[in-house]
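Moderator note: this is an archived Q&A kept for reference. The question asked for a predicted structure of one protein chain; the sequence and the answer are reproduced below.
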Amino acid sequence: VVSTQSTGFIQVQSRLVVLWLVLDPVKEVQADYNVPMMICAWCIAEIVRYWYYALSLVDKVPYMLTWARYSLFTVLYPVGVSGELLTIYSILPHVTASGMYSVSLPNILNVSFSYPTFLIIYMLGYFPYLPKLYMHMLKQRSKVLGAPPTPVQKKVN
């Protein structure tokens, strides 16, 4: 099952932002509990995904791997996103105090930019996309594994 370009872009973009704009410049956050939570969720998801893709090239995907590919996200996605949001949140005091990546007025370009405000808006931007991405993955799961069974309803005469 192929994902759409927009869902793939959103997932890759969020990881790049967390890695390059949050974890790399603020070394202090790298020891927080939320970082291993996020990295483990990412790694498990990617290991399963790439094993699935590799074995599908030779039509040798065991059902258990297919199930894992389309089911583990139900836990890994919330854990990974929680780790990302907590990681971004944890650097806010540091970037606010240091003025990192912020530009204040007056300056030659006559523009200002607040990195802490950008990060807050970025975190808020997760919320409209979380349900969309999660529902997309649930639909993908139903396509591949079939819809979950519905309860049998008794007929009343």
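Archived answer notes: The CA atoms of residues 7 and 133 lie 7 Å apart.
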